[in-house]
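Report of the visiting student (M.T.), summer placement. My assignment was to run the structure pipeline on a short list of targets and document each run. The first record concerns Phospholipase D-like domain-containing protein.
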Amino acid sequence: MDLIARPMPLNLVAELPADASVKKLANFHIKHLPDCERVRAAIAYASRDNMQLLDSCMGQSKALEFFGRYDGSCPIDPMILDWFLKRNSPNFQYFAVPKWLHAKVIWYVGAGAYIGSANMTDRAWIKNFEAGLFLTHEELDHFGLLEELVAFFDGLRAVAKPLTDEMCKAQWALFKQREQLERQLSRVAEAFDTTDSFVNGAQDPIPAVVARTEATRYARFASEWEETLQHMRGLAAQVVANRPDWIDSNVPGGVQADQFLHAYYYQTVRGEQVKDSYKVFHDRNRKNPQAALQSALDDWRIGAFDFEWEDRTIREWAPTIRAAFAKDRIRGLTESQWVEAATRVHALRDHGVKMSNRLLGLPEVQQDEDTKHEAFARWLWIQRGAGGSSILDLLYFVIWGDGNLTQRLWDGIHSAAWRIPHIGVSILGEIVGWANPDMYPPRNQRSSKALRALGYDVNVSL
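After the run finished, the structure tokens were exported:
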């Protein structure tokens, strides 16, 4: 057990060794990073003058999960937020924790953990007189603290929000205001905290046992959905950078990402021919998802597989769906135009073949898949929500309605006024992506399984 700096509280789990001395956190970071599996950090404040934790994790290929404070004081320098977004890597994940985060914990998983007062600044790591404790992995295990660390970070994850482009832009705008209006700092911070929905809506930390209210169910859905959306955006950028010759340069990144995941899932993951093979791949890739992604991208770029399905989807199906569900056209579709577009939506096709012949009005004999796809699309055409909304009304609301897309997705699935039987998040998430792939890469259960197989921590059964 090592003392990082004096003075030290006395109510520790063990006595300090006799040779304990003042040491710099930077030295412990250099010493223990090479021996760890990955890094999980919760640090309230960070500035651009100390990027050592970030750059060294990247340089030594150590995955980093970072929890930082988010409020009107710009506690984490926007340049650090930019760093995470520009990596476009599942190995470097940033989660924003609203206003009450004050922890300074760095867990070098498998090597040890620092718990103390040092923020991620040059002064804290090199110059300040900080107080802190470093416990080796063996000491953490001996005193039963490994489970406490897992619970600590899992608790943060439950109330945090994954970093998005929008959040970073909001912090940059505030950061520039603060530079120009230093004398009005308090007023600016207060205004931000009272207008930003994430900060303003934050409550005290969620206790260990939480009632599954509608609000908490939505919060969990929104957090997972928006985190995965940001993963998809980052992945799309990497897929575009590894575009094979058979894909035109003007194909939207979201479309390319969807078909990359399609090919990876069916050509590689399903090739193992074991039940829930994506789980096997996840266990294999979760420590270094970026390496797994790059390997898959190399295969995608070379194209040494039968890509007839992906080519047809990109060249024919995706443009057809996007044109049909355009804002100025979707509510005027005829039944035949709806069927033409709907039968090209993977999640809708997959669900349609599982529907009973009786419900779809088909004879009780074996039906081919194309027949069931069309029958399901025509069945949806005549369905109505409790408020009288049709499938086209529902899709217009979810794709092009006002307000936050995540909330519209939730309402489209759970609100009696909009809900239509057998239309879930997989179908809506995919259609939103086809209609607006530059903003929202298509996401269905298959793409979620492919992401999880690559090592991403996503939910495959929303």
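Residues 217-453 form one domain. The mean pLDDT is 87. I thank the supervising group for their guidance throughout the placement.
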